[in-house]
Amino acid sequence: MDEDRIREKLSILADAAKYDVSCASSGSKRKNDNGGLGNASNGICHTYTQDGRCVSLLKILLTNHCIYDCAYCVSRKSNDIKRAAFTVQEVVDLTINFYRRNYIEGLFLSSGIFKDADFTMERLVRIAKKLRQEHKFNGYIHLKTIPGASDELMHEAGLYADRLSVNLEMPTEAGLKLLAPDKNRQDMIKPMNYLKNELVRFGEEKKLFKSTPMFAPAGQSTQMVIGATPENDHRILFTANHFYKNFNMKRVYYSGYVPVSNDKRLPGLNTEVPMVRENRLYQADWLMRFYGFKVNEIVNEDVPNLELDIDPKLGWAIRNMQSFPIDINRADLGMILRVPGIGVTSAEKIVAGRRFGRLNWEHLKRMGVAVNRARYFITCNSNEFERRDLTGTNIKQFILAESASKYLKNKPNQLSLF
Ligand code: SF4
Questions:
Q1: In 3-state terms, what secondary structure has residue 140?
Q2: pTM of structure
């Protein structure tokens, strides 16, 4: 292969892929039991860039040529940029070479659309198939599927990839129409639905027949671009919740819009979405998935956006001071999970630990509780930090004064976006 040309393609197509944030490689059960290369079930080490994005995968586009003209995308056909496309064999060779050199643990492959959805999707599938069958590659493969691709190709993709994803792009259909008029929400819903049903079907068959092959063992995920259209956090989380519930999504990713154009439909070039907004959305997302919160408890018509200076769990607690303090030695797990400063693991340790005696602050510290936050919301078997009669506003001020949040410096950009 012409190394200079490959290097050039790599620099173009890796750069174009950096706008996609949905590359976390957790959750796969693929094992190395065929004496091949890699092992996605253990040994996947996540490396994160400073802004928290995963870099342990070879993350590239197959091509940045595209027949569509989505206003928010750097690869849109009207954008005057250098274009490139890998061949199927080039991506396979790069993956294997990088894997052997220990640069990567797997492949994250997305693509612009050349010709049509199936034409592009067929190439993505061929890459995964070659890696698995010809090179016995057991590393992690995440394929971004092409909206509108046929069920047959989606099926094949599921046989070779660990995770499949279909980008939702915009949080609402209206936003999609505005910025990506060539695209159709149904072209995204259909493959998501197909994947959901196939994941269930393969799961059921696996219970009956051990020999049933794996189908996308790390499930499906999706991604929304945040801040290119004016939806508030309530709308965004409402959409995310809908897709978690109805399409068995493993993850919804929130990708802050990076200004790439001075198109009048988009926010101005100097209005980058601050990282703190993405971060708060991920925190809220965790509250929905692991802490038993409903969307409307986190954001609603009265509180349509997440607060940027405090995390959403603290925000909820401060708005609901009538529910606190709780007695950590008696409260149920659901309520303990709602206390700022207590994570899922600590909450479970508390419930298990209090069977052996009443817990005090020292016990809680040893269980990993961030006592400097939790103390405003709980009582335990000690009065050392007894809660004084503080208002929610006082508590917020105390906590803010204590924590030097690395995100605060981004705050002023946020509300001037629209
Ligand atoms: S289809 Fe995908 S690659 Fe093409 S312009 Fe739209 S977002 Fe970009």
A1: strand
A2: 0.86
